[in-house]
Write a structure and sequence with these properties.
Helix content: 25-40%
Enzyme class: lyase
Organism: Triticum aestivum (Wheat)
CATH class of the largest domain: Mainly Beta
CATH topology of the largest domain: Lyase, Ornithine Decarboxylase, Chain A, domain 1
Family: Belongs to the Orn/Lys/Arg decarboxylase class-II family. SpeA subfamily.
CATH architecture of the largest domain: Beta Barrel
Largest sheet: 10 strands, mixed
Number of helices: 21
Structural class: alpha/beta
Protein name: Arginine decarboxylase
Distance between the termini: 22 Å
Strand content: 15-25%
Oligomer: single chain
Shape: globular
GO molecular function, one term: arginine decarboxylase activity
Radius of gyration: 28 Å
CATH superfamily of the largest domain: Lyase, Ornithine Decarboxylase, Chain A, domain 1
Bound molecules: pyridoxal-5'-phosphate
């Protein structure tokens, strides 16, 4: 397992057992060995009734993360002498699946753990999942709002849920006032601050002066003034911010919390708002590659450091201003759910990549290099050429730049080709549908085979999916690798499966229907490795109907008529009906597997 860096990104949840199988430890405590769940055994038990690709869910890991989050904040609160509590919410958008939301409500009950909704459908999910027993839990209503959204949030309050309407825009206040009058329900209002603190890189675009969401401090104070004039200032209770996902360092966490706490204190001291909660949004990161580097795929801190940065920053700012410590809320999503599920892909075949450069001999390469360096402008000894502004060389640079790149690539390949052939592993998946972030934002997830982990994987592999797009290929892996070491396929050893780990956040909701490959099967695994429930993914029929076809009228009837004309409806009807009721992935792959041992 060392090859895959599992000890770094997997600690303490994922290990390799004596049989060389990937294991899950839902207690997050490796001392309890013997209690690990053997992933291959779960797959073998599931595969007779469930199709690939499948997601294995380990609800025990959700509970462990939730407990760890609360322990981290409780310790930070105790250690710094903070005088208020922590009370978090799960942002529904990060994984809306019913089982997950219900798990969080259930596991979070004793913590008054709540939910965050960013749209009307999410609000409806949250309203129905939170129960009377969760009347203290926050139901944070974020996102742009119309009258219907605000009315829903007020209904939630009228039903005894602790719904808070967080304003993203000034204009929303008019809607809130209007709906509140209409329905006779007093709202609890929060405001989302647009902070100046920004995070660098891909995930940072939601914050900063030009960020898309929230109100700058000045506008927040105007809202407070307006509420005061309306004698509704008592509505305003919460200040919220979210500077983006994957905050890379605790310096930025502290900076953002300090900036927000400053606005909070001003609202209390200068505007007389009776605030009580500071909601620090999401952004708690996941160390996908195990490097703790603070790159796009990694964060340089753990849960404890994150919690103490927030608690400490808010405490200092409030004490400086003589303001009571607010209840601290966070909307951590990614860090709560990433670990708890893994996607299991099935290898269909492994085919050596044709070596298109084989005919390039070292002599030919040398000749190409000589030819390039003989070009005058490249030598830099032609005064006129050097004196010419760069722009006038653009065409040459472009032309030769590509040549240089090609030669360099050939060189690199000819060195590599001596030892390695790259194998294209065809996998039963659609990258767009299952791991859209791999394709959309070049997200890297740790990947590894689930078995044969004591055997040296001799093939350098890339993963190819079932779609016919050139993008349907994974050829970037964690820590900058361009291939994933995999074992030669051997049907005698049974199926060969690759797990995509830390993939529990965002992927399912983002997943598209490209090529009309739908979602995966979902298998829920209990603490002892038993299968609790198994849901099949969307059938072909369901996927087709999402594109506005009436399956009976537009598909079956039409095919029926045509088949009748040829007298083959009996045969065709059976095949078509069977095809409509299964998942669109490959079920039985009977082509002999090329590239097997
Ligand atoms: N809160 C809000 C308002 C968000 O927009 C998001 C994600 O985009 C989150 C919370 C969750 O963030 P994360 O998954 O980084 O914790």
């Amino acid at each position: 397992g060392g090859l895959y860096n599992i000890a770094r990104w997997g600690e303490p949840y994922f290990t390799v057992n004596q049989d060389g199988h990937l294991c899950v430890n839902t207690h997050g405590d490796q001392r309890e060995s013997g209690q690990e769940i053997d992933v291959l055994h779960v797959i073998q038990a599931a595969k007779d009734s469930v199709q690939f690709p499948m997601i294995l869910r380990f609800p025990g890991l959700l509970k462990h993360h939730l407990d760890s989050l609360h322990t981290a904040f409780d310790n930070a609160i105790k250690n710094t002498g903070y005088m208020a509590r922590y009370q978090g919410v799960f942002p529904v958008k990060v994984n809306q699946n019913k089982a997950i939301i219900q798990d969080f409500v259930h596991f979070g009950h004793g913590y008054n753990y709540g939910l965050e909704a960013g749209s009307k459908p999410e609000l409806l999910i949250a309203m129905s999942c939170l129960t009377k027993a969760n009347s203290k839990a926050f139901l944070v209503c974020n996102g742009y709002k119309d009258a219907e959204y605000v009315a829903l949030a007020l209904s939630a309050r009228a039903m005894g849920l602790n719904a808070i309407i967080v304003m993203e825009m000034e204009e929303e206040l008019d809607i809130i006032i209007d709906q509140s009058n209409k329905l006779g329900v007093d709202p609890v209002v929060g405001v989302r601050a647009k902070l100046l603190t920004k995070i660098p890189g891909h995930f940072g675009s939601t914050a900063g002066k030009h960020g898309k969401f929230g109100l700058p401090a000045k506008k927040i104070y105007e809202v407070a003034n307006r509420l005061r004039h309306l004698e509704k200032l008592q509505w305003l209770k919460l200040l919220h911010f979210h500077i983006g996902s994957m905050i890379p360092s605790t310096e930025i966490v502290s900076k953002a919390a300090t900036e927000a706490a400053d606005i909070y204190c001003t609202l209390v001291n200068e505007y007389g708002a009776r605030m009580d909660t500071l909601d620090c949004g999401g952004g708690l990161g996941v160390d996908y590659d195990g490097t703790r580097s603070g790159s796009d795929m990694s964060v340089a801190y753990g849960l404890e450091e994150y919690a103490s940065s927030i608690v400490q920053a808010v405490r200092v700012k409030c004490e400086d201003n003589g303001v009571d410590h607010p209840v601290l809320c966070t909307e951590s999503g990614r860090a709560m759910v990433s670990h708890h599920s893994m996607i299991i892909l099935e290898a269909l075949s492994a085919i050596p990549e044709p070596k298109d450069d084989e005919e390039t001999t070292p002599e030919e390469l040398q000749a190409m290099i000589d030819d390039l360096s003989s070009k005058k402008w490249l030598k830099g000894d032609d005064d006129a050429a050097v004196a010419k502004p760069m722009s006038s060389h653009a065409a040459e640079i472009k032309e030769h730049g590509i040549e240089i790149y090609k030669v360099a690539k050939k060189l690199a390949k000819s060195v590599m080709a001596k030892e390695t052939t790259i194998y294209n592993y065809h996998m039963n998946l659609s990258i767009f549908s299952l791991v859209p972030d791999c394709w959309g934002i070049q997200q890297l997830f740790p990947m590894m085979p689930v078995s044969r982990l004591h055997e040296r994987p001799t093939n350098m592999a890339t993963l190819i999916d079932l779609t016919c797009d050139s993008d349907g290929k994974v050829e970037k892996f964690i820590r900058g690798a361009q291939t994933l070491p995999l074992h030669p396929l051997d049907p005698k050893l049974g199926g060969y499966y690759v797990a995509v780990l830390l993939s529990g956040a965002y992927q399912e909701a983002l997943s598209s229907k490209h090529n009309l490959f739908g979602g995966p099967s979902i298998v829920r695994v209990d603490e002892s490795g038993g299968i609790v429930t198994a849901d099949l993914g969307a059938t072909t029929e369901e996927l087709i109907s999402t594109m506005r076809y009436d399956v009976n009228q537009d598909i079956l009837d039409v095919i029926h008529e045509r088949a009748e004309e040829h007298g083959v409806w009996k045969m065709v009807g059976e095949i078509v009906k069977a095809g409509l009721t299964t998942m669109p992935y490959l079920i039985e792959y009977q082509v002999p597997l090329p590239g097997t041992a």
